[in-house]
C-alpha cells in the first residue's frame, strides 16, 4: 500500500530547554522536498560519500541518513560516540574517503584543531544549529582548502533547513524553493503580519511544503506557532528576527537571521 505524501514520516523532539520538549510531526513530502533541494543544490550523486554521525534524536541526521539513499551515494556510518572524538572522526573520514560531513560550529572548531584533520578528502562541510563565526570559516579554509563550507539555517518545524550561505562564493539562497514543484517561501513580517520594508528587521515566518503538521498532541501550542496569514496561507512563526536582502538568488521572499 502506498503511503500518502502527507503521512507523518517522523517525530523529533525539540526545545527541551523550555522544560517540556515538544514533538514535531514532519511528513514525507516535506522531507523529500528538503532532500531533493540539497541533492540539486550541492551536486550529490553516486560518487558522493556522506558521513552519518549525528545522533538520530537530532534532525540533521535526517538528511545524513536519507540523502545518500535518495541519490545513490555512499552512506558511511560513524562508530558510536565518534562525533565527540576529533581524532577518531578524522581517521574514519580518511579511511572511508568521506567527502561530505556536517558539524555544529562548536564541534567544527576542535575538529580543525586536530592535527590529523589536515588534508582530509572533504569537499563539503555543512554547518547549522549555531551561529557560524567568520574566524572559523577562515580556519576551515586553511586546514581544508579543498572543502567548501556551507552555512544552513532552519527549524525542525520546517524539515530542518530553509536558507543556505556558501561561504566561499558569497552566495546566499532562500532554499529549498521548488524542489518538488511546490513553493516553499520565507516571509519577514511585522506584528500585524504585514511585510516589512527591505532592510528592516521583522519576524521570520515560513510557508509551503516543508512545514510540519504541528506539535504531537499539543493543539494549543500548534495553534500559536502555526498561524494563518492575511491571505489564508498557513505560516510558521520562527521567533527569529530577520531582514530581507538583495543578496538572495531566488525569487522567494527571502530572509537572513540577525
Please characterize this protein's 3D structure.
Strand 5, helix 4 and strand 6 form a beta-alpha-beta unit. Helix 1 packs across helix 2 and helix 4 runs parallel beside helix 5. The chain is built from six helices and 15 strands. Helix content is 24%, strand content 28%. The strands form four sheets. It has a five-stranded mixed beta sheet. Strands 10, 11, 13, 14 and 15 form a five-stranded antiparallel beta sheet that branches. The C terminus is likely disordered. The termini are far apart. The longest helix has 15 residues. The protein has 258 residues and is of the alpha+beta class.
Distance between the termini: 45 Å
Task: Sketch the topology as an H/E string, one letter per element.
Answer: EEHEHEHEHEHEEEEEEHEEE
Spatial strand order of the main sheet: 5-6-7-8-9
Given the structure, what is the number of helices? 6
Count of extended strands: 15
User: Radius of gyration in whole Å, from Cα?
Assistant: 18 Å
How much helicity do the residues have? Answer: 10-25%
| Class based on secondary structure composition and strand pairing | alpha+beta
User: Regions with pLDDT < 50 over 5+ consecutive residues?
Assistant: 176-182, 248-258
Amino acid at each position: 500500500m502506498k503511503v500518502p505524501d502527507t503521512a507523518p514520516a517522523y517525530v523529533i523532539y525539540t526545545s527541551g530547554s523550555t522544560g517540556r520538549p515538544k514533538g514535531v510531526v514532519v511528513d514525507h513530502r516535506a522531507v523529500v522536498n528538503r532532500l531533493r533541494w540539497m541533492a540539486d543544490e550541492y551536486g550529490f550523486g553516486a560518487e558522493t560519500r556522506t558521513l552519518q554521525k549525528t545522533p538520530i534524536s537530532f534532525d540533521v541526521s535526517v538528511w545524513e541518513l536519507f540523502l545518500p539513499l535518495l541519490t545513490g551515494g555512499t552512506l558511511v556510518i560513524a562508530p558510536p560516540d565518534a562525533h565527540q572524538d576529533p581524532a577518531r572522526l578524522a581517521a574514519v573520514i580518511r579511511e572511508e574517503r568521506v567527502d561530505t560531513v556536517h558539524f555544529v560550529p562548536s564541534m567544527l572548531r576542535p575538529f580543525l584543531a586536530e592535527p590529523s584533520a589536515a588534508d582530509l578528502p572533504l569537499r563539503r562541510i555543512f554547518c547549522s544549529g549555531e551561529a557560524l563565526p567568520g574566524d572559523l570559516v577562515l580556519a576551515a579554509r586553511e586546514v581544508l582548502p579543498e572543502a567548501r563550507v556551507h552555512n544552513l539555517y532552519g527549524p525542525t518545524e520546517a524539515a530542518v533547513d530553509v536558507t543556505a550561505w556558501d561561504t566561499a562564493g558569497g552566495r546566499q539562497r532562500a532554499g529549498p524553493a521548488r524542489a518538488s514543484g511546490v513553493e516553499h517561501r520565507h516571509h519577514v513580517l511585522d506584528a500585524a503580519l504585514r511585510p516589512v520594508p527591505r532592510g528592516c528587521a521583522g519576524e521570520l515566518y515560513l510557508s509551503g511544503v516543508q512545514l510540519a503538521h504541528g506539535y504531537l498532541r499539543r493543539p494549543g501550542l500548534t495553534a500559536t506557532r502555526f498561524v494563518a496569514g492575511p491571505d489564508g496561507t498557513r505560516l510558521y512563526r520562527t521567533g527569529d528576527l530577520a531582514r530581507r536582502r538583495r543578496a538572495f538568488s531566488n525569487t522567494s521572499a527571502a530572509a537572513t537571521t540577525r
